[in-house]
Hints:
By secondary structure, this protein is of the alpha+beta class. The protein is built from 18 helices and 24 strands. The longest helix is centred in the last third of the chain and has 24 residues, at 497-520.
Amino acid sequence: MIPTPFPDRPRFDARDMVLGRTRYAADRRLAGMLHAMTVPARIAKGTVTSLGAEAALRVPGVVRVLTPDDFPEPPPSAEDGPPPPPPTLTSTVSFRGEPIALVIAESLEAAIEGAEAMRPVYAEEPFQALMDGLEADREEAEPYVAGDAAAVMARAAVTVSETYESPTQHHNPIELMATVAEFRDGRLSVHECSQSVGLAKYAVFAALRIDPAVVDVRSPHVGGSFGQKGLAQRQTALIAQAALLTGRPVKLVMPRGQIFHVAAYRPRSRHRVELGATGEGSMIAARYDAIQEQSRQGFFPAAEYHEAPIRLYGIENYLGTGADIRLDRQAPGWMRAPHAQASCFAFESAVDELAWKLGQDPLAFRLANDAARDPRTGRPLSSRFMRECLEEGARRFGWKERVAQPGSMTAEDGTLIGWGVACGAYPSSMPPAIARLRVGADGRTRFAVSGHEMGQGIRTAIASVLIEELSIDPVGLEIVIADTTSVPQHMTAGSWGTAGCVPATMKAVERMRSAVAELVGGQRIAGNLHRQLAMVRRPSVEVEVSELAPGQKPEALEELKAGGIVAMGPEYPAFTSMSYGAHFVEVRVEPRTRRVRVPRVVSIADCGRVISPRTAASQVYGGVIWGIGASLRERTEVDPRFGGYLNSDIADYVVAVNADIEEIDVGLIDRPDLIANRAGLKGLGQVTMAGVSAAVANAVFHATGKRLRSLPMRIEDLL
Length: 719
Ligand code: MOS
């Protein structure tokens, strides 16, 4: 039976947000609170020989300067235990901007003045900030292999082989990285913006060598994260220690310029893609090599550039290699559509080049190369509606009016018009979950589940299920997430937020319904669950449920409780689960200035069943907008002379703004995937962005006849 679609429901927290009532980490003002400011290293590599804190300590209001000596030795990293927590303060500098001291003061102004008064002395060492010229120093990743790409490529009638590049890019959520810590009545409470309060808690107790039982971390609201706040942040343990040592609450809001230098970022990557097809246009082989910049200790995996491309089409012979080039930079990491932003740009550009070489329409070419199963494992796909995305998008966009020849569609004033299409895919993953639901006779409902708000509006999806499927009063509904004092908390990332909450919510709803039915017995009581409980004189009923990913071993629940990251996907024991999308883009290129505008995008996503239409559509808008920014604007300028970044603010790091964005038509296929999980949903957040840059590049080629293979595509590339 196909479940009925969920209705469009306003964002659960919309009213509080527009009224300014939502309290983010930095909004916490506690009595006697001190302010902290980190002191970043001004060298890219070397040693701090003296900190020069005297002048800082003379600044009125400065209370204390924390140095590496104020922290315990880092814990030894166990063989199969969790990775070590992030380092705290260090006198061994491994990238420019690494925190070397923390100034604590009575006011923010004094903390800043104190940090600027520090006069550290360094012994500098040579360093490498750019991967250019180091391409031979490859640290190989595990390849992705299907069939025999080399042998079959040799038989291909038509091939393309090109190199594409995606630059270093930084997340720039509105909310800066903020931590408030307080030690009171024997408990250390941390308020932070985080996608993983479990990891944040671990970072504190492991780095500071204190009892996990006294540490609480909460992150009820996050003002945008996109992967930046996924792994433990370095500042968390610093601020926690500052609170312990001063005995007062301490706050740090890290300035954006410092965030550029310590937070995760999308690494620059270079992609050599070779595709082979038969004369009729059937893609039979792909050889694809991706290299990326990497830090000395970083572990953002180069292999995963292949996760999406190998499943975009039914190419039976695929050899995907990948490698790291290690540099003296902070660790790169997950940033919206990690891997897929760069790899779908490269791969879907190459697919477009191959279609053009074959003389085929790029939409028809994609439809003709649909996949029936996962080429990597040979297993079935849980569901795949990429064809539906392409067909629906083409219909809405009016693709059949397209004239194939580049440069042949122009406006009256000579503006060049280009239409491009590209697809994206992204793993649909799922973590285990534990949820606790309590319904009271007093009209209140409290639902606690593992999950994090990261700007996506996760409470709206949870509320959608609770309100639609359980007879409760929506006004009395409280949703507790991202709180280590409630149920165990798994990291929310990898587009698995909804899969981590909603199947468990549905299970809890079923359990609650039967629990109340049992209490009420055969009586017929009109009204909602609260009233039914009141009538049988029961103050409240609580149920607890757990949920595993398909085929996941029950031990995963123990690992979840221990704070582990145990999400599964895209490969499950019996199938592979991917989400899909298709983007249709119109560009207009001004004839004289060569300025590129994007007046129109149609983007259709297959995320299985849609749980919250409003926030799901917002995800697609966000992914497309960022895709346009990544295509035409965003590039972090790495400074090869001194290390670090030159455009470390949002005046100079240019993101897409309102004036860049015109019409975006969003569609969701909304076909439940009941193999993926009991809710029928698949991930959405990241697939929305995957392929947008290729669609823009393909449209630019169609408008101008010029193939741009390096992001961002700027005016100077089209002159
Ligand atoms: Mo995401 S980039 O996996 O938070």
